[in-house]
Amino acid sequence: MMKKWMLTPTILLLLFISACGNTGNGKQGTGGKATTVDTTTVRLGILKNVTHAPGIVALEKGYFQEQFGQNVTIEVLAFDNGSDFAIALATNKIDLGYAGPGPLTNQFLKSENFKVISGSNNGGATLVVRKDANIQSVSDLNSKVIATPTKGSTPELSLRLLLKQEGLKVTSDTSGVQLLSRSPADVLTAIRQGEIDGALIHEPWGSQIVEEGIGSVLVDWDKIPPNNGDYPLTVLAASDSFLADHRDLAKRAIAANAEGIRFIKETPDEAYQIVADQLKEWSGSTLNLKLIQSTFGHLKLTDELNTDAFKELADVSIDAGYIKNVTKKDLDLSSMFDLSLLKEVKQATTNK
């Protein structure tokens, strides 16, 4: 089982998982035993959201440790948003982990030194609005202030796409929709204090706002663009240096992610509790277990990856000015993906 997370001076939550207990001795990994010889530390990043449930569960159930083997120490860093994660991955602060396509794409076009290697979850973000903000439809968002986790985040790009579909413009004044960055955990307070009129955020934060009675869902997760919620919101990515030095460990991370997905689908009640407990550690407040359970209904857990959605969201980033020096016509993201590892893991699983 995972040890509790510890807050570091860098505002990252840091966990050292000791190689003990069930650590892969005699365990089958991606087609063979986890027989890592050299002592290695793997630095894994993750976001503090229900949408990262496969990673949370895979860590808590020990799937990563089993796959990596007894000589590997796992160091986990938890982030408030994908932009910070992407920078950490590109600057060699972490080796691999979970984030969304928006910040990963924005960062990749600057550094080109990591790869997306697997899917994890599609969907799980909702657009919620303050109850007294007089918002009944997306068109009512004009002149309102709407929060997203950070500039260039996947929820922000989805919001921009939604507004564009409705003919609304993003502006810095009341002539259009004003966007504000707020961490998901801070959105509830901002809505309660009337600082913002709504937010497009990952679960469970949207559902928590509804449960608190201070907001309502304006656009549910399965109507959020692109592709009506069926788009990659959480994927697994790894640095090029980690892939070069530890390709087998990257494959084992993919296998652990798949085990986390399978556990959630087969044992949902225990998965709800695992995620609820971890989110409590992160947020400092107890989240209703029924709330966590309901938010799982907003997720489509899968390790398959729709790369077309990356291009659609990247086009929005170009329009917003987050991606520079490349046109939508010339944009080529093919080198951002290495799905050969996922294919090899699936083949090894099938051949067992």
Describe this structure in words.
An eight-stranded mixed β-sheet has the order 1-2-4-3-5-12-6-13, with helices on both faces. The chain has 13 helices and 13 strands. With 352 residues, it is α/β, with parallel strands linked by helices. The protein is globular.
Q: What separation lies between the terminal Cα atoms?
A: 27 Å
Helix content: 25-40%
Q: From the alpha carbons, calculate the radius of gyration and give it in angstroms.
A: 20 Å
Please tally the β strands and state the result: 13
Strand content: 15-25%
Structural class: alpha/beta
Mass-distribution shape: globular
Major beta-sheet overview: 8 strands, mixed
- What string, H for helix and E for strand, traces the elements in order? EEEHHEHEHEEEHEHEHEEHHHHEHH
Strand order of the largest sheet: 1-2-4-3-5-12-6-13
Average pLDDT confidence is 89
Number of helices: 13
**Spans with pLDDT under 50 lasting ≥5 residues?**
1-37
